[in-house]
Amino acid sequence: MLGPTPGSHHWSERTDGAMTTREKAHLIWQLIRTQVDEQASRLCYRLNLSPARRRRVSLETIRRPDTGFARECEELAASRYSPALLAHCYRTWLMGAVVGQALSVEADPEQLYIACLLHDLGLTGPNLDCACDTGFQILGAREAWRLAKGQQWSDDDASRLYEAISYHLNPWLSARHHSAEALLLKYGAHMDVAGAYQHLVPEALHQQIHQRYPRHGFREEIVTSIDQTPHRPGSHAHFLRRCGFSKLAANNPLDQRLRQDVTNDANSGR
Fold first, then answer.
1. pLDDT tens-place string over residues 89-123
2. What's the pTM value of the predicted model, to 2 decimals?
3. How far is CA 102 from the centre of its chain?
4. For residue 115, which of 173, 182, 66 has the smallest C-alpha distance?
5. Is the pLDDT reported for residue 269 higher than 70?
6. What proportions of the chain, in percent to the nearest 5, are helix, strand and coil?
7. N or C: which end of the chain has fewer CB within 10 A?
């Protein structure tokens, strides 16, 4: 047995993100499992055998939570992220929320929104200086935890937010063993970075999402982040880099498709 998925609150605080050999093997198993599952999901979707294709998905019902904490997180994100990374966080939220509709996974709207906005805080500001010692997803999760506790969130709710962020670098999460927020943040982030499971979001919605939050500069910035950030040896980010994750980001089919759309629009004289 490979054991539990590395990334829980307890695991993160105990290890600072350094995986054992068994946990690295678990990550390789996740990479294989998610590739097989995505291919099967894509085939079922094309053949109209997937319930996800028959469910109504829309951006119309997805609303930014109107809470003081959500607004505080928006201001923090705007002050800390580059424009490209900020747009990535918002796309992650919308993509994850649409996948939730497609897969009938119900997340707490505020939890999901805040987790998506804050999930890359470990790549910004003073946190970035600590990435060589602690996995960046843990640095972001810790900051989110402190903010949530400052808003009088319960330990359980703050831990749920923490784990939505600390788990997000895992290629595979189980709906049975992980929260809806962790699952949908993972789907949204991996879709936006590498195009994973992009078929779960219809083309028209991809276009709407990218009109709201364009990808300008994101591909170059995320590839640089993967390749050049001094991630802690043995951390998720360090191990995924060794597995060639930056190549997946560089060849994201979402970027290729959007470039083709621009070319088609230019050729049609739009």
1. 999 999 999 999 999 999 999 999 999 999 999 99
2. 0.95
3. 17
4. 182
5. no
6. 65, 0, 35
7. N
